[in-house]
Amino acid sequence: MAKLETTYLGLKLKNPIVVGSSGLTNSVEKIKKLRDAGAGAVVLKSLFEEQINHDVNRAIHSGQGLDYPEALDYMKNYSRDNSVAEYLKLISEAKSAVDIPVIASINCYSDTEWIDFALQIEKAGADAIELNLFVLNTDKNSAADSYEGLYYSIAKAVSEELKIPVVMKLGLYFSNLVSVVNKLSVSGAKGVVLFNRFYEPDIDINTLSITAAEVFSSPADIRRSLRWVAIVSDKVKNIEVAASTGIHDGDAVIKQLLAGARVTQVCSSVYKNGPEVITRMVKKLEEWMDEKKFKTIDEFRGLMSYKKIQNPVLYERAQFMRYFSKFE
Question: Where in the numbering of this chain does the Dihydroorotate dehydrogenase catalytic domain appear (predicted)?
Answer without folding.
Answer: 4-289
